[in-house]
Amino acid sequence: MVVECGDAGAFRLPRGIRPGPQSTVVPQEGYRHGVFKDGGRKVPMLAASVSAERLFEVFTDLLAPFGDTVDVYLQRHAGAENAREMLREGVEVPVLLSHLYGAEELLVDDGATGLVVCASHGKPMTEVHFDDHKALIVYAYNLTPFMEVLDDHRITRDPKHRLVLEEQHIHLEIPEGEDAFDQFACELSMLPVPDKVRK
Length: 199
What we know:
By secondary structure, the chain is of the alpha+beta class. It has one domain (2-192). Helix content is 22%, strand content 33%. The strands form 3 sheets. Strands 4-5-10-9-8-6-7-12 form an 8-stranded antiparallel sheet. Strands 1-2 form a two-stranded antiparallel ribbon. Strands 3-11 form a two-stranded antiparallel ribbon. The model is unreliable at 3-9 (pLDDT under 50).
């Protein structure tokens, strides 16, 4: 699905997500700053939409601020009963990147698969989500290096930017999604997270 965005050019939605029939969201590139409230804790956040042909590149560039090692959650939300989550802790970022390139289609085009990269235990809370809505969401007390990545990619900051996920939307799975999920989890030596799906 290609959406014409005037001076901003054309925005191409990934295959895995579509606005629903009643949605008023016009998909376009952009990001906004916000605050995520979790109980008594408030965490600064960024929420970004990126055209499909650039989405994976922007995501991998957002991993640069993490440093040497990260924890990685791979999630599959193919219906409540089939929800799965896999975890690998202490992954070296170059190792993660080498495996991510083989999983680009899964991440960009499968509407049931998402990935969360987190700062390793003992480091300040930082997370980058490539979620199953194909949005890029960052949670961190220092957002500056992540904003610099988005700015370098000329993604416009817009306090009114809206994501497809914020109104009625449709997830579409690729036929080989389940097998690709299993293959990526195996290659990265991930283990199941028992009895929960990370929110």
